[in-house]
Amino acid sequence: MSERQDQKIGIVGGGLMGHGIAYLFAAAGHSVGVFEPIAESRASLPRRLQAIVELFGDDPAIVRRIAASEDLATAMRDAAFVFEAAPEKLPLKQQIFAELESIVSPTTILASNSSAIPSTEIGRKLTHRERVVGTHFWNPPHLVPLVEVIQNENTSEGVLGATMELLRAAGKVPVHVRRDIPGFVGNRLQHAMKREAIALVAAGVCDAETLDTVVREGFGARTAVLGPMEQSDLVGLNLTLDIAEVLYADLDRTPGPHPFLRDKVKAGKLGMKTGEGLRKWTPEAADAVRARLSRFLVEQAKARKKNSA
Ligand SMILES: NC(=O)c1ccc[n+]([C@@H]2O[C@H](COP(=O)([O-])OP(=O)(O)OC[C@H]3O[C@@H](n4cnc5c(N)ncnc54)[C@H](O)[C@@H]3O)[C@@H](O)[C@H]2O)c1
Question: Interior CA angle at 136 toward 149 and 118, to 5°?
Fold first, then answer.
């Protein structure tokens, strides 16, 4: 076993994100402790982890490297890194980090998987703030390669480097985000597109089905292998500028969320779970979308594993 695999990993919160993060580190050879205060969630953890074993056809011994506990100190014992994946509430996360600081070694790295709360705020009251870092995994964390590693105003270079290295060794694709800003990089891009997409549908330019087709069958077909920076360089920045000159003044500038989105939510049209959102959904149609996404992500993840073996 390498020195790196010897590092114990602590996970706070064994929910949707926490169980996938626990799995990916166990699969990389680490022993993992999961703190999960809700008995029902603790009880379902082995079944949820076993489902990932079956998804990949992995060695069932991976799950035996993960131990769940209702006691924070037990789960975090000897942890070199802690990944917090508790509910998205600042006071709760601050309280968890304060408790962690009283339990773990002063050198244990404390990472938050928060989607939106700056880790600067989460670690504000700690004595050793330099060991707090943001690690934004994408759902499902055992299938999506990217992890945004967000260096906040206190994060030391050593903590940043060790976190990037740990994630890389576990088969993830960590990227360094230099400022702790809302949405980091990925969600800003995703929501910039959603903002325009909703405005186009609201204005009747096309229906929601057509909009999805434009993305999936158009630029989406190449997005997994071509980022917007390389795409701009590929077509030439002169063309990119010419298009920007014509287009940007025309893009949506509604301040705040579009009224079309607000009205949908007010009317209880929340998406697949209510049968209607931006599109209409039967349970079968919603299941078909989930199955399509899962099949695609699993195929991609298996191909990556095979290529790196
Ligand atoms: N779901 C996503 O797509 C996604 C993506 C990236 C980041 N995140 C972030 O990850 C974090 C967890 O999200 P999730 O989707 O896994 O939520 P979740 O509700 O599925 O999981 C949270 C878990 O924390 C447990 N918990 C409750 N109280 C706790 C406490 N006091 N201490 C520790 N654990 C406690 C819950 O029982 C639950 O199992 C959030 O900060 C969220 O913003 C979520």
Answer: 85
186 CB within 6 A, ligand 1: no
Tens digit of each residue's pLDDT (9 = 90 or more) over 49-60: 999 999 989 999
Residues of the chain with pLDDT under 70: 1-5
pLDDT at residue 307, rounded to an integer: 82
The Cα 236–Cα 37 span in angstroms is 54
| Placement of tokens 């298009």 in the chain | 243
DSSP symbols for 13-63: --SHHHHHHHHHHHHTT--EEEE---HHHHHHHHHHHHHHHHHHT--THHH
Q: What is the DSSP letter of 253?
A: -
Three-state secondary structure call for residue 257: coil
Strand partners, 17: none
Q: Helix 228-235 to helix 237-247 angle, to the nearest 10 degrees?
A: 110
Crossing angle for the helix pair 283-308 and 39-56, nearest 10 degrees?
Answer: 60
* Closest approach atom of ligand 1 to CA 14: 39
pLDDT at residue 72 in the model: 98
Sheet holding 109-112, edge to edge: 66-69, 32-35, 8-12, 79-84, 109-112, 132-137, 146-150, 173-177
The pLDDT value recorded for residue 3 is: 55
Residue nearest to atom 15 of ligand 1 (CA): 16
Q: What would the pLDDT profile of 154-209 be if each residue is shown by its tens digit?
A: 999 999 999 999 999 999 999 999 999 999 999 999 999 999 999 999 999 999 99
Residue that is written with structure tokens 């999936």 in the block = 216
CA neighbor of 53 nearest in space, from 45, 44, 62: 62
User: With a 6 A CB cut-off, is 113 part of the ligand 1 pocket?
Assistant: yes
3-state secondary structure 147-159: EEEECCCCCCHHH
pTM above 0.90, yes or no: yes
Q: Ligand 1, closest atom to CA 36?
A: 34
* DSSP symbol at 88: S
